[in-house]
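Self-study notes.
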Amino acid sequence: MHIHILGICGSFMGGLAALAREAGHRVTGCDANVYPPMSDQLRALGVELIEGYGAEQLALKPDVFVIGNVVSRARAEAFPLMEAILDAGVPYTSGPQWLAEQVLAGRHVLAVAGTHGKTTTTSMLAWILEVAGLQPGFLVGGVPLNFGVSARLGRVAAGERTPFVIEADEYDTAFFDKRSKFVHYRPRTAVLNNLEYDHADIFPDLQAIETQFHHLVRTVPASGLLVINAREEALVRVLARGCWSEVERFGVKSDAPGLRARGEPHAFDVLKSGVKVARVEWSLIGEHNQLNALAAMAAAEHVGVALADAARALASFQNVRRRLELRGEAAGIKVYDDFAHHPTAIRTTVDGLRRRVGLERILAIFEPRSNTMKLGTMKAQLPWALEEADLAFCHGGGLDWDPSESLAPLGDKAVVSDSIDGLVKRVLQAARPGDHLLCMSNGGFGGIHAKLLEGLAARG
């Protein structure tokens, strides 16, 4: 089969392209921004890339066009290829639909959903299954350091439901299918990690997202398992709408049925219904990762991995790129990269680093880049998100709201700059030996990490 992917350089569609190539399909694709590292990864796989969405690509005559959700008819002039596809009446489908039909069919799908922690928990779960010898397939919205790739088919056996672990995103599928992506995946094991308001560009309120999560719940068979964060009121409401599968809760209180942790996030006992069943000792920090671990362990148990074995596997888990990733050190100052962009994720990331570094100074450097943050929907939460940092630096360029006003409660602890270079200059002026520079964005942040390290190195 020849597939041509529109929006191929996104993390999901790029992973889909890798799976398609591994499965033996011919893959071509286009995007408005064909640039490294994704472009290099795809070309290394033998994927032909085309810059832009020109209508002349119709002449490729693939068996099917696979449409990414970056494509919009509201901006039809930006996507002439899509208009040509519709005009010609040739076959097209969405990425999640193609994946469900061509890759996930017949597999035991383990889907990890939630506002936060999807990528990390998916990676943990895949690694646990790998160490257990199950050779899982996976598709992750990041690069797990244990694997070095974001997607692979794993072991496939006729007549056997071999495991496939997938990061299950609640964002919409395509311009012609406004359901959440995860509705297509039909998991037998579904992790609902947490649930907060996000994606203000497509969801009017939290209830609308809860509805999509309940659509996911409806697709899990009676023989399946829902792994639920017991601390989330929104998930209680989701299950109250109806539940037809077994439920395993994690993060429970005291001796309630389910999994809970006892001890510090880097070294803790795992208790099931009050009885110690395993112990995790690893390099990760933060209570959020402790909860992620419980979720991954519960999901792995559903495919036959004992909790004690899962705990031992986590000891060798190396996390995911851009999750408190140390990018370098210069002049006695460490520079980190993290994907955090939602206020809750920012607060959790800062808190995790605080637990590691104690009283040493943390300079939090962030850009409100997600669609939700660009709209200013959660701007009032920023002071709360950043209160554990010693100083906060915000890139305010391209916003329709004033970050200075939102960060005013932080007083002189907050600095706003409309340019990356201006922000770098202010950070370098403030940084001193022993500091930790924590850069947070769901994009490339204008190469700020390299610029900071270069500037620090120039101090001599």
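Second protein, same conventions, sequence then structure:
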Amino acid sequence: MIGGFAAERDADKPIGVVTYGHARRGDCGDIETVLPVGQHAAGDLEATIRALNPSGKTPLTDAMAQARDLLPRTAESADIILITDGLENCGGDPCALAAEFAAEGIDLRAHVVGFAMEAEAVETLSCVPEQTGGQLFTTQSGAELAAALTEVAQPAPVAQDVTLKAVDARNGEILPSATWEVGAESGETVFTGRDRGRVALDLRPGDYVADVGAPGFVGEARFTVPDGHASSIEITMEKTKATLYLRAEDATTGETLQGVEWLALNVETETAVETVNEDGGYVRLLLPPGAYRIEGSVGDMTGATSLSATLDEDPRIDVALAAPAVDVDLTAPSEVTAGAPFEITVDGADSDTDYLLIARAGSPEEASRYQRMDNRVGGDGTREYTAPSEPGNYDLRYYLSRDHTIAARRALTVVPAATRMEAPGEVGPEAEFEVSIDGGISGYVVIVEDDRPQDDIVSRYDRMKNSVDGDERAITRTAPETPGSYLLRYHAGDDQRLLVEKPLVVAE
């Protein structure tokens, strides 16, 4: 039987023989290389094996280590076949040595052939082939031993490049992502993980099963990897849940909204599925097929739509959200005098942080943050406002703080005020003198050089120091200490517009 194995194996492939326990009884060091690794004739191999009569100790670990040392440093793959009729009895650890083999840089498979041993005893050595990708045999005769050696001597199957694709059963398109679990028919798991809908694996020829999952899909396939060429396997993914892509937009501007809370209510079962879209754009929602009412909300804006969710299509749905309508009423005179106080009554205010501006007719409707804060209404009620100092056509604009839109508007005409200023034409240096003003416009009265341009406004400090109230009729000013020609100017406080100008001479 051994002669048949020796004759049938490929003589061009190198082989070596290490024996143990054949020369000295009771000696754990009785290990010898009786045939160095190389090409040997079938007769030499058969004669070497038949001459062996091991009857001593069984130092399995050291014998395997010596066999490993015989392999050339340039070897890329090799097989070590351990033939034994007993278990390790020299203190070695075959399992630990097999782990070292598995960690080395070459493809080293270690096989175990138990000869004339109980199957249970041979099984205790299964750690060796399990860790190295080898095989385990239990033989009771020369014929079985030769068959095991012949099987091991066969070339190891070469792993094939296999591409697995998770494809949508509806249209044959590859899914963007999937969760994979691929196992051999023997039960060994060869790949698990989350990846794209396409994965490339190196698989040895054989039978496999793939369990694949994806959001709203499930698939399973049994397939065979043939020997000799790469292959591509498609796993058909069946739809299990309806898929909706939801996006919310501002009903007024069409702008995509962020932070939207979605609720999908099944009309028949009254069960609900919720999700939040933090970043805007479309958010995916997986649902059992059925009729649904889809509701979206963010802040005080809401919107809804009804639809039928099916397994056939994955629609993209845009839902417009809007805040509840606000009906604000403004009561105010249609005409006021420049700089004069007047009352505005607000009814139906949406919030105490809404704001009301007096703006030029036709001017841009955006308001700055400062304007919004400085002109808050504070809810319903009547409040006093001051008309602009410059005549013209204006708007009363009531803004909602929630979205800065205009909820109410009234036209306001500002007519000129009879602005007047009387003062002496000549005063002494640093003399106090009286100035009479009229017209009801708050502002400031300053003394400036007679060649100072009208648009060259004095500093904020000077404006505050020389301010006048619209109700004032008489004020006191102090002349400069330097004699000369000056101007007495009365400016409006809201836009610094020059209202009245009088010459003033400071005499020596």
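Instructor comment on the second fold: The radius of gyration is 49 Å.
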